[in-house]
Amino acid sequence: MCHPHPRVVLGLHRSRHERRTLTAALDLDVTTIDTSFNYHRFTAHETLTRVAGDLLPRLTISTKVGFFPTGNGQAEHSLDPGRLLQALEKTNTDLGRPPDLVFLHNPERSLERHRDQAAEALATACDALREAATRGLCGAWGIASWDPSRLPELIDTTTPRPDVLMTRTGLTANSAMLDAAETLTAQWKPNARWGMSPFGGNTDDPVWQTFDPRIFLQGPSDDMSRLQAAFRLAYHLPPVTTVAVGTDNPTHLRELLNALPRKVDSTAIHQYRSLLRERARHQPA
What we know:
Helices cover 40% and strands 16% of the residues. By secondary structure, it is an alpha/beta fold. The protein has a single domain, classed as NADP-dependent oxidoreductase domain (TIM Barrel, Alpha-Beta Barrel), CATH 3.20.20.100. An 8-stranded parallel β-barrel has the order 1-2-3-6-7-8-9-10. α4 packs parallel to α6, α5 crosses α6 (118-134) and α9 packs across α10. The longest helix is centred in the middle third of the chain and has 17 residues, at 118-134.
């Protein structure tokens, strides 16, 4: 079976939104960026247009809606379809163009409030983004979930199918997250599967000094760093063809790209997933 070549998306979650970050990515042939309505204190889209408006036509832009500013400077989450569409309309205005892809951002954040109506609330929000794509407010739509564990039980044949599903990926994702991502993939059959946060949001975490992910690679791996190996593994935990990763350091981005040709030991991955499930079964509820 021939697998698609792994793709890298530049994530801007913790980015300083500087022009040099985008030009460096383009120089490395990374042509897709992932941002959000709420990034950079709700100014991400305006900032991108101001500092690099001439570069945006060269970029494929994915963004997210779901978090909204409050009067006290904080953020709140909502699945209200009217607010989602208003945010997307503002996104079009701020970018000066429709984004290529829009994700419903962490829908699980609001589902607890809806309780018995959670499935309906999720379906209604998905339908709003599907409508937005039909109206030309975005090229395609998807679901981005930090913790998708509860979502599979809320999906049925009437729930709109996203074009893209993005979930956490890599060694820091627990068994429930990985299993839920694969279940959602089987239920929805999206056109594309993306992963995010391959390092759990922190490359300085002590785990990357105490655990060596290179044991999951085929052949000698002394020429690779632990972070490079962890990034390569992210395409298999769960299986995805695209990973969004954030960095303002061009050298770091280049090192991650250099890890892509390496092959992963599928048997070791299978054993690791089995151990995760076994550990989860023995943990108290």
